[in-house]
Design goal:
The protein is mostly helical. The chain has one domain. 62% of the residues lie in helices and 6% in strands. The chain is built from 9 helices and 4 strands; from the N terminus they run E-E-H-H-H-H-H-H-E-E-H-H-H. The strands form 2 sheets. A two-stranded antiparallel ribbon has the order 1-2. It has a two-stranded antiparallel sheet with strand order 3-4. A hairpin with a 2-residue loop joins strand 1 and strand 2.
Length: 251
């Protein structure tokens, strides 16, 4: 674990560094794809900025909703606090930010959605590196398997050996990003987004089986409920587009 990085008189949070790198990596990938689509590559960083603002707001709102009992005594202070971010809220808020940006740029179409799909997976993979370095409590349940590790110096410390789930998620979503990138010209617009929704939903649905979140409905955690919605949405979109999965554009 390395929650903080000391650079002389400056102390940097490794989670924050990873958070920033996730947006940089996502922006670079989107820029490359926009260039392939004959769109201005600089649009990528506008989209990333819109996603960052929307994601921060959405993740913060999600955290406040899920932890209302803890924050209700000082709701205003909790709103402006630097702690407490939830990924699924960030996904929704970031998606809304990008949709508003795309409408402003006149690029609100399936090609735009497909262009950002691999970067969503890549950004998630990079962001989870920050969770691992900071030991922020996103680790899993106790286990005696060979890959188990403790987080004694994490921001949410534990001396118990647990599943290092951030590592699993970084690997899984890194592979998803690679698959999506390699499939980017194989299907008609919209299909790549559908594949992302299904794969990302399955990944989180499964990882929650070894995490320590509490079930809230039908034996599922909040993250699993959201994952089921992602899988269903991706499957519905895929079925809607199934009449012409191949990219109709000439090679």
């Amino acid at each position: 674990m390395l929650p903080e990085l000391e650079l002389g008189p400056i102390t940097l949070q490794t989670f924050g560094i990873s958070f920033a790198l996730a947006f940089v990596a996502s922006g670079a990938l989107v820029a490359r794809r926009l260039k392939e689509l004959n769109k201005p590559p600089d649009w990528a960083y506008e989209a990333v900025f819109a996603a960052m603002v929307g994601g921060l707001i959405g993740s913060r709102i999600d955290y406040l909703i899920q932890n209302y009992d803890k924050v209700s005594d000082d709701l205003l202070g909790s709103v402006v606090s630097g702690s407490g971010l939830v990924w699924f809220g960030g996904l929704l808020g970031g998606a809304l930010g990008v949709l508003l940006w795309a409408r402003w740029r006149g690029f609100l179409e399936w090609r735009m959605a497909d262009a950002v799909a691999p970067s969503l997976a890549l950004g998630y993979a990079v962001g989870r590196v920050g969770c691992q370095l900071s030991g922020d409590g996103d680790y899993g349940e106790a286990t005696g398997l060979p890959w188990a590790m403790a987080y004694p110096e994490g921001t949410v410390p534990t001396t118990e050996e647990v599943h290092p789930t951030p590592v699993f998620e970084t690997v899984a979503m890194g592979l998803v990003a690679l698959v999506l990138w390699n499939l980017r010209d194989r299907f008609r617009p919209g299909v790549l987004l559908a594949i992302y929704l299904v794969l990302a939903g399955i990944e989180r649905l499964l990882i929650e089986l070894i995490r320590r979140n509490d079930a809230v409905f039908a034996g599922l955690t909040p993250a699993q409920l959201f994952s089921v919605a992602m899988i269903a949405g991706g499957a519905a979109l895929f079925m809607h587009l199934r009449g012409g999965l191949a990219d109709p554009r000439p090679a």
